[in-house]
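Q: Sequence in, structure out?
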Amino acid sequence: MGFFSIDTLVTIVAAIFTLGILILIHELGHFLAARMVGIRVERFSIGMPPRLISLKNKFDGLWIKLFIPWFLQRAVDAESIEYRIPRRHPKAGDTEYALSWTPFGGYVKMSGMIDESLDGKIEGEPWEFQSKKRWQQLLAISGGVIMNTILAFVIFSVIMYTTGMEEPVEGTQVGTLVSTEDRPVFPAEAAGVKVNDQIIAINGQSVEKWEELTNIVHGMPGQKIELEWLSNGIRHSDSLLVIKESVPTADGVLDVGMIGVGRVTEHVDLGFFASVKYGARSTYMFGTLMARGFWSMITGETSMDQVGGPIMIAQMAGEMARRGWLDIFYFMAIISVNLAFINILPIPGLDGGHFLIISIEGLIRRPLPLNVKLIIQQVGMMFLLGLIIFITVQDIARL
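A: Exactly. Output:
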């Protein structure tokens, strides 16, 4: 695949679309929560600095500012160019709305808050972050995580409502033959099992329900079994070696046995409340899977080699885009849950780091010294920068 191929263009557009919406929703959550509790938002930016263009309401109209890149500033003898759009009823606003050069990022700058900008200016004004009650500060900090969780829930629910779901049909009739990129042919297919065949026994034990079949197979990874099935009314049997596969579940990643058969299903349309139920269940499931995966990395059960960053997300977004809009929105919902989980981790520089500091201040009933907060933020930003570099190197190594 060449760099300027259609596939590459699709990957880039899909990545910007996916991450752009997720970041916009996340920062919009902070913005709305801050405004809700009366905290002044100085800047709402999509993308990370340097700024490209910004908009701000003033008493004499709407001002548009175009920021000149540093390498052109000497040539034009200016750092920025401003243009005023007159308005019939101008009204000054507190917030500068900016679009920055780096698309994979964004931030909301709240007055009087020590954040990624490392701005230590606090004047004690009533609209400042530090002047608000603890619960108001916590709500402003949690707004992004809340919005990403809501976005995932809404996407999952809408997908289920518009597409319905496949309900399993009772019995042991084979509906599909499983294949993966690493293993195109599983043992059942290799033995001659075909779609619409009926599995009747395993190791001489009769099976009439699909759950009976899976309970036996899942519990025998790496072992040999004697499989019996009916094909066009003719009885067949063969010895199969059950494949061991690591499968993510609500209880964590488990090793289960598989022979490569799926059951027959039928399409069922879902009503509103059933779709909402499945949306909530999917959001919870992917959230717990993310938490368990993160814990397994901490304990060393999972290698850091499996961690992916923006490049891996871009590749996956491109693959989902090539499959269709439904897949890319489903992928977006999963990433939105992951983004919510990552941001709530108690790491300085993330929302969870701010949440932890506010909680500590609430317990000791006084704010931490300003220089302490600045040091915590600096250490956190250095850690995050190092983590981003490590993950990016991992992504590039996988290309």
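The CA atoms of residues 255 and 336 lie 27 Å apart.
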